[in-house]
């Protein structure tokens, strides 16, 4: 597993909360894109990001919380906000990053390998922050096998 360690600064993104199985977060992304298009934000969108707060091996799937987010080229004006859209802060700190190329459905084994294989053998411990995925291309215009996702796992040195 090819992991790199990065120190990230805090980043504010804009998102919609999803409660339910993580593989259904696409519903929140669909709603988020409709809002972004209605607000004319497509050209300001840098990437999409999913933030995952709960461990689906521990929490029941219907109770898992996640945020479907967009990173924009700057802050939103107050009039562009809606009751659905919330600023989401991705806290700065130390992260283990894995670059995945392939379909989103193949991401679950990445988490298993990271937590069961890489992390126990590394010089790091899991930090008490959510992991997140940065989607670097568009699934509507990119073949599934060519999708690029960066997965960020929060860590602290042992």
From TrEMBL:
<dbReference type="Pfam" id="PF06445">
    <property type="entry name" value="GyrI-like"/>
</dbReference>
<dbReference type="InterPro" id="IPR029442">
    <property type="entry name" value="GyrI-like"/>
</dbReference>
<dbReference type="InterPro" id="IPR050908">
    <property type="entry name" value="SmbC-like"/>
</dbReference>
<dbReference type="InterPro" id="IPR011256">
    <property type="entry name" value="Reg_factor_effector_dom_sf"/>
</dbReference>
<feature type="domain" description="AraC effector-binding">
    <location>
        <begin position="1"/>
        <end position="156"/>
    </location>
</feature>
<protein>
    <recommendedName>
        <fullName>AraC effector-binding domain-containing protein</fullName>
    </recommendedName>
</protein>
<dbReference type="InterPro" id="IPR010499">
    <property type="entry name" value="AraC_E-bd"/>
</dbReference>
């Amino acid at each position: 597993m090819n992991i790199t360690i990065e120190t990230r600064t805090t980043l504010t993104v804009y998102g919609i909360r999803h409660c339910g199985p993580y593989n259904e977060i696409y519903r929140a992304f669909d709603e988020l894109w409709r809002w972004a298009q209605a607000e004319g934000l497509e050209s300001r969108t840098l990437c999409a990001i999913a933030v995952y707060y709960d461990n689906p091996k521990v929490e029941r799937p219907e109770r898992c919380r996640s945020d479907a987010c967009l990173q924009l080229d700057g802050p939103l004006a107050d009039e562009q906000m809606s009751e659905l859209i919330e600023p989401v802060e991705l806290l700065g700190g130390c992260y283990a990053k894995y670059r995945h190329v392939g379909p989103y459905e193949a991401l679950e084994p990445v988490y298993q390998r990271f937590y069961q294989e890489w992390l126990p053998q590394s010089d790091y411990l899991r930090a008490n922050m959510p992991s997140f995925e940065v989607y670097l291309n568009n699934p509507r215009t990119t073949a599934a096998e060519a999708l690029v996702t960066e997965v960020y796992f929060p860590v602290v040195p042992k």
